[in-house]
């Protein structure tokens, strides 16, 4: 993680979960389990946006 704004900190449960320089998957292992980190990696790697149409 390189930076986080106030809205992101609030969304994830507070600034105490943010440590810049650490991989997001280590800070928030639940995102790994949900497949979200894989999705973010693909968007970053390809430059193709992802639009979710269904929530699970």
Task: Write up this protein.
With 56 residues, the chain is mainly alpha-helical. It has a domain at 23-56. The chain is built from 4 helices and no strands. The longest helix is centred in the last third of the chain and has 11 residues, at 36-46. The termini are far apart. The model has no long low-confidence stretch (mean pLDDT 84).
The number of distinct β-strands equals: 0
- Between the first and last Cα atoms, what is the distance in angstroms? 26 Å
Helix coverage percent: 40-55%
Into which percentage range does the β-strand content fall? under 5%
Average of the residue pLDDT scores = 84
Low-pLDDT windows of residues? none
Helical run tally: 4
The SSE order reads HHHH
C-alpha geometry: globular
Radius of gyration: 12 Å
Largest sheet: none
Determine the structural class based on helices, strands and strand pairing. Answer: mainly alpha
> What is the subunit arrangement here?
single chain
């Amino acid at each position: 993680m390189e930076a986080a704004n106030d809205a992101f900190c609030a969304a994830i449960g507070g600034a105490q979960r943010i440590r810049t320089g650490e991989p997001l998957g280590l800070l928030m292992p639940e995102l790994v389990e949900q497949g979200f980190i894989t999705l973010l990696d693909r968007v970053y790697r390809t430059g193709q946006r992802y639009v979710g149409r269904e929530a699970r």
